[in-house]
Amino acid sequence: MWWQILLFLVMSAVIVTGFITEAPQKQIGEASRIFYFHIPQAWLCVVAFAMSAFYSARFLKNRKLIDDDYALDTARLGFIFCLLATITGSIFAKVTWGSFWNWDPRQTSIFILLLIYGAFFALRSAVEDEDRRATLSAVYSIFAFVTVPFLVFVVPRMVTSLHPTDSVIDENLNFTMGVQVRSIFFSSLAAFSVLYFWMLSLTKRLNRLKRKQMTGAA
Amino acid sequence: MRKKSIALPASNAGLTNKVLAVYVKDLRLELRSRYGLNAIFMFGISSLTVISFSLGQAALSTKVLSALYWIVVLFSAMSAMAQVFVREEESGTAMALRLTTEPNAVYLGKLFFNLSLLVILVSVITPLFFIFTDAPVEGIVNFLLVMILGVLDLCAATTLIAAIIARASVKGALFAVLSFPILLPVLIVLVAATDKVWAGSSLAEVSKLLQFLLAYVVIMVTASLMLFKFVWED
Amino acid sequence: MLAIKVESLKKNFGERKVISSLNLEIRQGESVAITGPNGSGKTTLLKLLLALLRPSSGKVTYFDNDRVLSREELRHRISFVAPYLSLYDQLSAEENLQFFTAVRGRNITGKEIDSLLLRVGLEGRGMDLVSDYSTGMKQRLKYAVALSNKPDFLLIDEPSSGLDDSGKAMMTALIEEQRSGSIIIIATNEKEEYSLASQQCRLDQ
Lengths: 218, 234, 205
Hints:
Chain A has about 220 residues and is an all-alpha fold.
């Protein structure tokens, strides 16, 4: 229980300090506060995807359908964070660049991640047999995950982008933020991550109970 | 461990023959039915004609031209690439194949077959594209290099997807739905690279993009080889 | 000494139990007829034996002199004939035979092809496309493909499916010939085919 209260306190603190302290980036100004929330969301979008690939691989190895449930759980959560990151990102784009959507490489990347999640759900609905659905979607999730490095790290660096790239680290891999900004940002990142893993453990528990009930009934 | 390392060379030699058997069989079936070839040619030529008619004499930037070129290739390829596996499942021959040979032989045979299909497609579409549009012929060697890498990328990414959808109960538009997100990063880079070589860039200037295209092929084929047996044997 | 060992094999499709806790041991020279009413799981059992389906629990193991055969080795030693197992329609009989030996990593000579076709009563029809064959001829060709492998394990679902009287006689002779050196498993509902095997395994609902 204590960590749930702590999580509540940290998140509240991040929200409050994120708005009352000085804006993290001088040139962009007030709008740059979104950085405290947008980046953790985008980060979790990739983490959730990695977790999905992890559970998929474990399913292919052990053939336990519960791992397939977990892969779906984390993909659903990832999809929510992906949507949030897309929305916050495009609000930021409207304020600073003048339009909600302009196919900036970063926007393209997150859009493709959304498409991958969508394709994953579409594939699952197209297979009736439970075991086969688990296998095919596990293979697709791993296969798609392999392309993420290309998507998130390579493409944005190959095509010119308006997205602030030096917000966390500069070219020499040094932190560019001041102590205050850094502490708010990393608190937020940690709080968001804990929130994700908490949500995941809840859905996992729910699925374990469902499986138990099913085998109990059969 | 020791046993494996001794058995490996022999089974590799065997694998080549098995891959070849699958490839030759598919080629022979294709020549007898011409299903895939007809589909990709009709699609490719129709879309080229549409582009040519609708653009008329308009002068287009190399950026637009390179995007059009890859759209034509991608959509024509999509019309036939899924067929290699769907045909086996629908005719009921997949079971016989599954019982008689190892999964990697099937995957590689199908990969090379798809590759041949695409090579035939681009070798017809590309000259026509140059005739119908004013894509610059200078720097053709650089363009061919980008094109070959692009064809390899398309095959590397879509052959496993074709195997996946052949085993799904509802196929429909699933092939495109599953392939696009995986192909989009490579398409962005392909269009950028083609644009640059048509605008007169040297190979050194696009080397980063070419490295990307090559890395993508290697990674996708490796991943496919690791994953294919799960799709095929389940 | 060849052997197949089936240990507490179970297969469920969703909630439905198709095979529940089956134990079976078959040794070289023995043959088994799997019998049972429609829907009792004969085909499912054959598919489990062929590793075309994954068991819900339990396992199937193939032995050669107490050595467990790997899936890869097994592919070279096992053959299957079934109504739902299709050959390539757009290839000729000879091309089918060539293909199915080549994907197993072997070569087949023209002489071998001729003798196989003669054996199943398809002599002179080797160059025809399989799509021009009748159901019975296709079934004969499936036997030829199965034999081309010189199988140690021969699994047959509905052996006489589509065969005329001379086809049935051919099939009976062929199974009797194979019986001593290999393990044969057939799934059938025809009473007269029970005698093709040395023992019966009856599946009930």
